[in-house]
Amino acid sequence: MTRFKSGVWLAVLAVVVLALVGCQQQSTAVIKVATDATWPPFEYVQESDKQIVGFDIDLIRAIAEAGGFEVQFVNVGFDSLLAGVAQGEYDAAISSITITDERKQKMLFSEPYYNAGQVVVVRAGETAIQGPADLTGHVAGAQIGTTGALEIEKIAGATLKTYDTIDLAFLDLLNQNLDAVVVDNPLASGYVNQYAGQLQIAGQPFTAEWYGIAVKPGGEALLAKINQGLAQVKAQNLIPTLEQRWLSGATPAGQ
After folding, report:
1. Domain interval for residue 149
2. 69 found inside a domain
3. N vs C: which end of the chain shows fewer Cβ within 10 Å?
4. Pairing status of strand 38-39 against strand 92-93
């Protein structure tokens, strides 16, 4: 058997090591994912350990595992989150983001994963406001940059008051500084459960909205991985499992 000289062995070993390192880096690519962790039960900071948890967090982790990448979360305000994805500051974002035509002009979106309509939340016992049409002449709050804020702007005679985080809007409602809050139905249910006897949902959801995962412009390769992972997650029936865990009688935490 021919013996290799030590220099040849070292060269071969170096090639093998580089190949292994390259494979490892490729299989553990880390994606920077922005989220606004003030939106329970979809994403919020858990008081016990200060970790970001929620429906969306479990979902994107499952998608990442199926798609062969890892996620690094960045907690940022919702308005800054959208701007950051559009400008390529973040690779992707998951934060109860409604897919809209306007947003699709600035960023890419995954296949939809959850349908959540807007509802009006009022103080318990309120009878004058039964739905969005009754917001005329009233002050309604919403988080800045959300579809809830956009819907209030469409109502003639309604006054919009925006907040950096949705919990501040609900506190103003409880303190009678607002007449109503317009927000996604799952989140509304969580706050109504948390403040039982103090808040109520007025009427039914008045929009049909799909959540999607936003991806930076030019991120088609990442989008393909996300959609691949999402398809596997849906095939495994994970969405209903997450609904049962996070949305069944959900109560916002850490507020």
Report:
1. 118-202
2. yes
3. N
4. unpaired
Q: At 168, which CATH number?
A: 3.40.190.10
The residues, any chain, with a CB within 8 Å of residue 227's CB and separated by 6 or more, are 110, 111
Scanning the structure block, which residue is given the tokens 């009678």? 176
Q: How many independent structural domains does the chain possess?
A: 2
- Encode pLDDT of 186-241 as tens digits: 889 889 988 999 999 999 899 988 999 999 999 999 999 999 999 999 999 999 89
63-80 pLDDT, tens digit each: 999 999 999 999 999 999
**What's this model's pTM, rounded to 2 decimal places?**
0.74
Burial 33-64 (b: 16+ CB within 10 A, else e): bbbbbbbbbbbbbeeeeeeebbbbbbbbebbb
Let me know if residue 49 belongs to a domain. Answer: yes
Q: Is residue 3 part of a domain?
A: no
Encoding tokens for residue 164?
A: 């950096």
Do 164 and 104 sit in the same domain of this protein?
no
Whether 225 is covered by a domain: the verdict is: yes
Q: What angle do CA 13, 16, 20 make, to 5 degrees?
A: 140
Gap between the Cα atoms of 185 and 117, Å rounded: 6
